[in-house]
From TrEMBL:
<keyword id="KW-0732">Signal</keyword>
<feature type="compositionally biased region" description="Basic residues">
    <location>
        <begin position="378"/>
        <end position="399"/>
    </location>
</feature>
<feature type="signal peptide">
    <location>
        <begin position="1"/>
        <end position="20"/>
    </location>
</feature>
<dbReference type="InterPro" id="IPR023346">
    <property type="entry name" value="Lysozyme-like_dom_sf"/>
</dbReference>
<dbReference type="InterPro" id="IPR008258">
    <property type="entry name" value="Transglycosylase_SLT_dom_1"/>
</dbReference>
<feature type="domain" description="LysM">
    <location>
        <begin position="314"/>
        <end position="358"/>
    </location>
</feature>
<feature type="region of interest" description="Disordered">
    <location>
        <begin position="369"/>
        <end position="399"/>
    </location>
</feature>
<dbReference type="Pfam" id="PF01464">
    <property type="entry name" value="SLT"/>
</dbReference>
<dbReference type="InterPro" id="IPR036779">
    <property type="entry name" value="LysM_dom_sf"/>
</dbReference>
<protein>
    <recommendedName>
        <fullName>LysM domain-containing protein</fullName>
    </recommendedName>
</protein>
<dbReference type="InterPro" id="IPR018392">
    <property type="entry name" value="LysM"/>
</dbReference>
<comment type="similarity">
    <text>Belongs to the transglycosylase Slt family.</text>
</comment>
<dbReference type="Pfam" id="PF01476">
    <property type="entry name" value="LysM"/>
</dbReference>
Length: 399
C-alpha cells in the first residue's frame, strides 16, 4: 500500500514539474512573439534600439490604449486612412523617405483633413502656420493648404527629410516633428547623446514628446496588422482619385460642381484647402480637383457659362464720408474681408458711388477665425490722428 502511495506521489510531482516547465516555455514564447509583433522599424528606418526590451512596455501601454479605451476612435482613424494612404505613400517614396512615415497622421490628426489643435496646428500633418509657410504651403483668408492631403504631404516630406538630416536618427527626427527641432537639439546637447530613448529618463523633453515615438510605434503596429489587435471589418473608403483642371479664378464652387455634374460637397471634399465659396480672388487661375472621369464634361459645360456668371458677390455703394472702417461697421465684415475682396488702393481715396465688393450673403459662412477677428473693435486710424492734433492744440493754448 505504501509503495502504491509513493508511486502516485512521484507521478503527481513529476507531472507538476512538466506542467510548470511547459508553462514557462509558453510564457517565454508569448513574450518573444509579442516582441516580434511590435514594429521596431526596418534597416533604413530604425525606431527601437537593439536593446528594445526595456522600452517595449512604453509601446504596449499605447497599444492597449488604442485597442481598448480608444478602440472606437482608432477604428475611425484606420478607416479614414484608407482613402489617403496610397497617395501619401507615393509622395513619401518619391521624396526618398520611408513609406511607413505615412502612418504618422494616425497620431497627429486621425487622418482628419480639418483637424485643428489647441496650439492652432491644422490638417492631417498638423502644421503650425509658420512651419507651413516655411515649407511652401499657403495660408491666407481664401485657403489653408495645410488641409490639402497632397500639398501638406509634400511639405511634411520635406520637413521630415530636413529633420533626419539634422539628427541622423528617425526617433529623434520624429520627436523634433512633435516638439520642434530647437528643443530636441538643446536636449541632445545637454545629455551628450544622439539617442531619443536615452532622453526619456531626463527632464529635457516634455511628457507629450516622451510618449510620441512609442505612440507612433503602437499606431503603426496596429495599422499593419489590425486583426491581431481586435480590429476587424474596418470600413475601407474609396482611394482618393481625381482629375485636375485649370480655371480662371475666382469661380464659385457650386458653379464648378454644376459643370462637373456633381454635388458641391464632392468638390469641397476634393479641395479641402478652400475656405470660401469660391476659388481665391488673389490668383489669376486655379488648379481645381474634380472627380476622375469628369474632365471632358466639365470643360464643355464651363465654356458655356459667361465669365460674369461664374463668381458671386454682393455690392456696397459708398456714401459721402465713408471710410474702410465705416464700411466695415455698416456691412458687418472686417477690414480684412474688405481688403481681400477689393485690394487696398480703392480705399485710399473713396468717392461716393464707388462699388465695394462684399461676400454674397447666401453663400458666405463665417469661420471661427472670422468671428474672432470681427469681435475685435474696429480701430479708426484717422480718429487717432485727429485726437492727437486736438491734444497738440490744447497744449499750445496752455503754453
Amino acid at each position: 500500500m505504501k509503495k502504491m502511495v509513493l508511486i502516485i506521489l512521484f507521478i503527481f510531482a513529476f507531472s507538476n514539474l512538466c506542467y510548470s516547465e511547459d508553462n514557462k516555455d509558453t510564457a517565454s514564447f508569448k513574450q518573444d512573439e509579442k516582441n516580434e509583433v511590435i514594429f521596431s522599424g526596418t534597416e533604413d528606418f530604425k525606431l527601437l534600439p537593439d536593446t528594445k526590451e526595456s522600452f517595449i512596455g512604453k509601446v504596449e501601454k499605447h497599444i492597449s490604449l488604442f485597442s481598448e479605451k480608444l478602440k472606437e476612435k482608432f477604428s475611425v482613424w484606420l478607416s479614414r486612412s484608407t482613402k489617403y494612404i496610397e497617395k501619401m505613400k507615393e509622395i513619401l517614396v518619391e521624396k526618398g523617405l520611408p513609406e511607413d512615415l505615412v502612418y504618422l497622421p494616425l497620431i497627429e490628426s486621425g487622418f482628419n483633413m480639418n483637424a485643428r489643435s489647441r496650439a492652432k496646428a491644422v490638417g492631417p500633418w498638423q502644421f503650425i502656420e509658420s512651419t507651413a509657410k516655411r515649407y511652401g504651403l499657403i495660408v491666407d483668408w481664401w485657403r489653408d493648404e495645410r488641409k490639402d492631403p497632397i500639398k501638406s504631404t509634400v511639405a511634411a516630406a520635406e520637413y521630415l527629410k530636413d529633420l533626419y538630416k539634422m539628427f541622423g536618427d528617425w526617433s529623434l527626427a520624429l520627436a523634433a516633428y512633435n516638439a520642434g527641432e530647437g528643443r530636441i537639439y538643446k536636449a541632445v546637447n545637454r545629455v551628450g547623446e544622439n539617442d531619443y530613448w536615452m532622453l526619456l529618463n531626463t527632464k529635457y523633453l516634455p511628457k507629450e514628446t516622451k510618449n510620441y515615438v512609442p505612440k507612433y510605434i503602437a499606431a503603426i503596429t496596429i495599422a499593419k496588422q489590425p486583426e491581431n489587435f481586435g480590429f476587424e471589418n474596418i470600413k475601407e473608403h474609396k482611394v482618393l482619385t481625381y482629375d485636375e483642371v485649370v480655371i480662371p479664378s475666382p469661380t464659385d464652387l457650386d458653379v464648378i460642381a454644376r459643370c462637373a455634374e456633381v454635388n458641391v460637397n464632392t468638390i469641397k471634399e476634393l479641395n479641402p484647402e478652400l475656405k470660401r465659396w469660391s476659388t481665391p480672388m488673389n490668383v489669376k487661375q486655379y488648379i481645381i480637383r474634380i472627380p476622375e472621369g469628369k474632365k471632358d464634361i466639365f470643360l464643355s459645360n464651363f465654356e458655356n457659362i459667361p465669365a460674369e456668371k461664374r463668381f458671386s458677390y454682393d455690392k456696397y455703394i459708398t456714401k459721402k464720408g465713408d471710410t474702410v472702417y465705416k464700411i466695415a461697421r455698416k456691412t458687418g465684415y472686417s477690414t480684412t474681408v474688405l481688403y481681400e475682396m477689393n485690394g487696398t488702393e480703392i480705399f485710399k481715396n473713396l468717392k461716393p458711388g464707388t462699388v465695394i465688393m462684399i461676400p454674397p450673403n447666401d453663400k458666405f459662412t463665417r469661420s471661427k477665425e472670422d468671428k474672432f477677428y470681427e469681435k475685435k473693435p474696429v480701430k479708426n486710424k484717422n480718429k487717432k490722428i485727429k485726437n492727437k492734433s486736438k491734444q497738440v492744440k490744447k497744449i499750445k493754448k496752455k503754453a
